[in-house]
Structures are given as structure tokens and as C-alpha cells.
Amino acid sequence: MKKSDFDELERLKAVQSLNLLDQPEEERFHRITRLARQHFRAGICAVTLIDKERAFYVAQEGLKNRDGGERQKTPCNKVVMEKSPFVVADLSKEARSSLYRGLVDRLDLHFYAGVPLLSQDGHAVGAFCIMDHKPRRFSRRDLESLADFAALVEDQMTLFRTNRTQRELISQLERLRVRAFIDPLTNVWNRGAIFDLLARELERARRTGNHLSICLLDLDHFKSVNDEFGHQSGDKVLTEFCRRLRDNVRSYDSIGRYGGEEFLVVFPETDASKALSQAERMRRSISEQDFQLSDGTEKTITVSIGVATFDGEEDIKALIERADKALYRAKNEGRNRTVADS
């Protein structure tokens, strides 16, 4: 690969990394083009990026759209390729006028002045330019002022990219943080997370006087599934079990894996009667449709559920103990049933 081809490839990567092509307009760039257009009393001012085959206006004043046309037919391409300012007093008389004829004929443009926009790593990604409908002179001081405006654009490009990178990093860290609280097999909260959520809801219920209920669920004879069909089938049952639970709770309810095949569900703002009804709906969703195991076998799975409602004073341990006692009764009374602590 020729060095020039490699340099162009790296330049295009720099353009793409800005994440400004075909994106919604950013006021930060329009503010600069407005000021520059007023300062130079120009008909048009634009922040132009030069992509592989086209020019794109990140911000523009005096133009109707953001399409800068073919790359080779804009003076901004010369600015980028030569990485230096380019000023033309009258495009119609410029030796390159055959290239820029479209600007003259279509937009009635005669004057052009542009300076390169550099990325942080020094690649010319585009041009900051002004254009006018009549020929005009442009002094050295004017060119310095244009370069100052371009530096402001470069600063904003850096900030835009930095802010985006920070947002992506925060989002990634948030995903990692959430993942640390998620059970990887069932994709519900793990034991630590569901306890934290319950503690918060308990404190809120204590403070506001609202109802709060929980239920403990234990898959009936789950060990026999692992023993007879293998752990892969057992994992598949647990995954499907949690999917059915999610389909039968409200968006603000929380499901967590309490132990191997035990699960804890938290029902905020839910009294004993509604919690019992909600738990019974979950139980039916498990027992009324067989589970498909890894080898294709279909098997009926049932669950026992114990329900308890916050009495307004107890702590987490006491509330869970009452739900556990109700679960114990459900198992002793034949399993595949829902029992509320009384």
C-alpha cells in the first residue's frame, strides 16, 4: 500500500471516529458558523467534513441542506488534501473552475475561503469555510480570523468526541455494574442484589406506610430433574422458569435467585390478598405448561410458594422467615400450591 493511500485510510478513520456524519445537527457548531458568517459578512459559512466520496456539512449557515456534493467538486477537498488554507477571490475565473463549475452555476458562488480542520491526531478531516455570491478580497488578517474560528470548531469536535466517549464508558461501566448483580444463568437478580432491593422497599414501606409483600418459590423435586436428565436440562428448566415468572409479574416487581432452585419475588405496594393472587398466577404459569428438556423430553414442573406481607415493624430477616414458614407449609401440604403466612 502506498503511503498516500495509507494516510488517506487513516484520515477517513479519523473522520468516522468523530461520529458527526449524518448525525442530528449540533448547536455547538451552528453557534460558530453564525458568528463567523456575521463577522465576515459572508453569504455562507460551513463546517465541512470530507468523507471518502462526498462532502458533508456538519453545520451551515446560508445553505438549504447538509449535502456538500461530490468530494472532488468542492474546494474543501483541496484544503484537506493539501492540509493548508485555500482562498479564491472569484471561482468563475479560477483555473480549477471546471471542477467548481457546479458551485458557480448551481449556487451562484464566486468567493471561497477555507482552512483545514484537524483531528486530535493531526489528520485533516474537513474544512471551515466561508463562501459568497460575489467576488471579494480576503486579507491575511481575515485568514487569521478564519483560522481562529476553525480552532474553535476543532475544540468543539474534541469535546463532542470526549463527551461521547465518556457517555459510552459510563454506559459500559453501568452495564458491568448491573451484570455484577445479575444471576448469569437465569438473568434475574442474584441473592445480594435482591436482598438490597428488598431492604430499600422495606424501608420505603416503613416510611410511607404502604403495603409490601414477598414470596419465596421452590421448584418441586428439582433435584430429580438434574439426577435423571442432567444439569444441562436442569439449567434449561431454571431459565424457562424465570422467563415465565417475568411474564407474570409487574414491571416494578423484582425477582431474585435466593438459592439453587429457590427464588424470591418482591411485590411493592401490594397487600396480602393481591400478593396471594399474584403468586397463584405465577404458580399456574409454571404447572399448566410442560417444560422441554435438553433431549426434547417434555416434563411437568411444579413450584411451591410461600407468601408474607410486611407488618410495618419487622426487619428483613423476620419477613423472610415468615415467607419461609409459609413455603414449608406449602411443601408439607403436598407441594404445587401457594400458602400465605397467617
What do these coordinates show?
The chain is of the alpha+beta class. It folds into two domains: 3-171, Beta-Lactamase, CATH 3.30.450; 191-340, Reverse transcriptase/Diguanylate cyclase domain (Alpha-Beta Plaits). It has ten helices and 13 strands. The chain has helices spanning 3-17, 27-40, 75-82, 97-107, 140-179, 191-208, 222-229, 231-247, 272-287, 316-332; strands at 44-50, 54-61, 67-70, 86-88, 111-118, 124-132, 212-219, 254-257, 262-268, 291-292, 298-299, 303-309, 338-340. It has a six-stranded antiparallel sheet with strand order 3-2-1-6-5-4, with helices on both faces. A hairpin with a 5-residue loop joins strand 2 and strand 3 (67-70). The chain starts with a helix and ends with a strand. The mean pLDDT is 90.
Q: How many runs of DSSP E, i.e. beta strands?
A: 13
Form type: elongated
CATH fold description of the largest domain: Beta-Lactamase
- Taking pLDDT < 50 over at least 5 consecutive residues as the criterion, the unreliable ranges are none
The percent of residues in helical segments reads 40-55%
How many domains in all? Answer: 2
| CATH homologous superfamily designation of the largest domain | GAF domain
Rounded Rg: 33 Å
Tally of helical segments: 10
Can you describe this structure in just a few lines?
The protein is of the alpha+beta class.
Key terms for this structure?
6-stranded antiparallel β-sheet, alpha+beta, Beta-Lactamase, 5-stranded mixed β-sheet, 342 residues, elongated, Alpha-Beta Plaits, 2 domains
Give the SSE layout.
Elements: H1 3-17, H2 27-40, E1 44-50, E2 54-61, E3 67-70, H3 75-82, E4 86-88, H4 97-107, E5 111-118, E6 124-132, H5 140-179, H6 191-208, E7 212-219, H7 222-229, H8 231-247, E8 254-257, E9 262-268, H9 272-287, E10 291-292, E11 298-299, E12 303-309, H10 316-332, E13 338-340
Parallel strand pairs: 12-13
Antiparallel strand pairs: 1-2, 1-6, 2-3, 4-5, 5-6, 7-9, 7-12, 8-9, 10-11
